[in-house]
Amino acid sequence: MKLLTVTVPCYNSQDYMEKCIQSLLPGGNRVEIIIIDDGSKDNTGKIADEYARKFPDIVRVIHQENQGQAAARNHALAAAKGDWVCFVDSDDAVHPQMLERLGQAAAESGAAMSMCRMLEAPEIPEDFSAPVEVSWERLSMEEEPLTALFDAGKYPGWVACAKLVRRELVQSYLFCPGRVYEDNEAVCHWIYGAKTVASIPHSLYFYRTNPGSTTQSRFSMKKLDYLWAL
């Protein structure tokens, strides 16, 4: 696997930043971590800068005025050096084997994208980091598997996280700033463009559920962006 770029957009994430970054560090020297501090008003930026000082060959930090997650991800992509890109949210974490296994699946399958499942919970389970035996299956992006991904219940195949994607595929269709569900709209284009996807049927990505987030709350005008994404 060639150089892999992990992008981490963050805004007021001081309570979760360290766990997130620490979960990514086992990736080794073939991984670069780009953290975009999206105008945080707490200690998020300071925590990110400290990790950049400790691991200057792996971690880079970009500070910007608050522009939202889509703009932060696009900013990271413009600075990315990796041939492959992985998106991680700052309040989430990844399994120690996730980056390696996603890379392995992509290399062995020849696919332009690999993906794994998510474990959704309020807190990281104690056994989440336990070693696992993983396998992958090749999915041809035709109507039936595309529909199955869309209807996959708690594992939404159309979110940006829990995936490894060739950088040129991502850069061919960037995120739309100012929208909610912007990754749903972009990822569908990547999946269709990839033609073939390597799917790992194991939960190697921890997604922290937050009932107060924009997408989880009962209603706001921003939720109408889901219709735009569809």
Question: Can you characterise this structure?
Answer:
By secondary structure, the protein is an alpha/beta fold. The protein contains eight helices and nine strands. It has helices spanning 17-24, 44-54, 69-79, 98-109, 143-150, 167-171, 182-194, 225-229, and strands spanning 4-10, 31-38, 59-64, 84-87, 93-94, 113-121, 137-140, 163-166, 196-208. Strands 1, 2, 3, 4, 5, 6, 7, 8 and 9 form a nine-stranded mixed β-sheet that branches. Strand 1 (4-10), helix 1 and strand 2 form a beta-alpha-beta unit. The chain is globular and about 45 Å long. The mean pLDDT is 90.
Biggest sheet architecture: 9 strands, mixed
- Termini gap: 33 Å
Strand content: 15-25%
**What general form does the structure show?**
globular
Structure summary, number of beta strands: 9
Q: Which residues form runs of ≥5 with pLDDT under 50?
A: none
* Count, helices: 8
Helical fraction? 25-40%
| Average pLDDT | 90
Structural topology:
Layout (H helix, E strand, L loop, with lengths): L3 E7 L6 H8 L6 E8 L5 H11 L4 E6 L4 H11 L4 E4 L5 E2 L3 H12 L3 E9 L15 E4 L2 H8 L12 E4 H5 L10 H13 L1 E13 L16 H5 L1
Parallel strand pairs: 1-2, 1-4, 2-3, 6-9
Antiparallel strand pairs: 4-8, 5-9, 6-8, 7-9
Q: Which keywords apply here?
A:
about 230 residues; alpha/beta; nine-stranded mixed β-sheet; globular
